[in-house]
Amino acid sequence: MTNLGPEPVTNGPKPETAKTTMNRRHPRSPLSQRHRDILEAIVRLNIETGRAISSGLVERGMQRSVSSATIRAVMKNLEDEGYLEQPHTSAGRLPTDRGFRVFVDGLRDGWALRRHEAPAEMRDLVGENLQGGLGSQDRLKMLAGLLSRLTDNISIIVGPSSAAIRVERVEFYPKSGSRGLMVVILDTTQVRTGLVDLPADTPGHVAAEAARLLNERVAGRTLAEIGGVLDTIDLVQTPVTECAGQMAQQGRKLLGGPAENTIEIEGVANVLETPELHEPQPLRALLRFMESPRAIRESLQHLRDEPEERFGVWIGRENPVGELRSFSILTGNFALDGRQGTLAVLGPRRMSYQRAFHGIDILREALGESPEAFVS
């Protein structure tokens, strides 16, 4: 859906880094197994229905293995301890951030076993879409769309920095008249091509020597380093250096790259109909965040700052973006062409965390991550 590049300074939401605890498990809550089972049932029912959950619904969900009186008493205890809240006097209960955190940490604790329960159709979807797709110029967009379909939420892919990509070689192929095709081959296996116009009286051997000189100057350098090199190729005036300078200037876009990591966002439509976005404030906050590449980069940068942690979950008020208190973000590193990028799933607090875990796990594994790297 969206490719976000560098942006001007805006008044968009800022990450509240000082208040954020990222990628760390919370200490295990002092809950009995019965309290934990009932809390888990409430969270699962809330994820499925989007509604406040009554004791009767919990009783049916637990197949009447616990009496209704016990369930009501436990729900009252969980509310008193801050795991549940009651939106209205006559309503059922909703999980709080603390309640969701217990549920999510429980999923993570058993993920080494649960990861094998991924639906076959999710693995098939990844296999079908990745086959032959990673050589595409739009591969980050493809990955974002795939992650969104896997998780039924908003996906955000922050690609590896292009500044560290190196040029393997530059080639020039004469075409009709004074026009030629410049081919830039990167160490990511990507190939960039563009047409270059030279003066009509440029001899073929001069163009060939100019291409050789340009290749000699840029091959092996990163895209970040090349900018200064292009401006000094023709300091000594000869027909070859002048021609190489013209190739360099016309091919500057091919030999450069955006200063910021590319961001791809897909799946906003997945969450627009959720009850959480029926109120205008959460919707406005979400759209402001989606329109601010700076907020996205700074929020997800915390993951890169803690490389020993391979996977993170922000829930509600743990969220690094102050206004996204109705949402959760799941994040993880991934490797592409030997460089690190970041992927994230953004959705309502009551998103299907298990499905999101499966989606991230399967995609990372397909991109070459070992399964053990995902389980932290």
Query: Hey, roughly how much beta strand do the residues contain?
Result: 15-25%
Low-confidence stretches: 4-23, 370-376
Total domain units: 3
Strand tally is: 11
Gross morphology: elongated
Strands of the largest sheet, in order across it? 1-8-4-11-10-9
Note the gap between the termini: 31 Å
Helix content range of the residues, please?
40-55%
**How many helical elements?**
14
| CATH topology annotation of the largest domain | Beta-Lactamase
Instruction: Please compute the radius of gyration using only Cα atoms.
Output: 26 Å
Give the SSE string.
EHHHEEHHHHEEEEHHHEHHEEEHH
Structural class: alpha+beta
In the CATH hierarchy, the architecture of the largest domain is: 2-Layer Sandwich
Whole-number mean pLDDT = 82
Q: What's the CATH first level of the largest domain?
A: Alpha Beta
Fold and architecture overview:
This protein is of the alpha+beta class and 376 residues long. It has 3 domains: 180 residues, GAF domain (Beta-Lactamase); 73 residues, Winged helix-like DNA-binding domain superfamily/Winged helix DNA-binding domain (Arc Repressor Mutant, subunit A, Orthogonal Bundle), CATH 1.10.10.10; 88 residues, Enolase-like, domain 1 (2-Layer Sandwich). It contains 14 helices and 11 strands. It is elongated, with a radius of gyration of 26 Å.
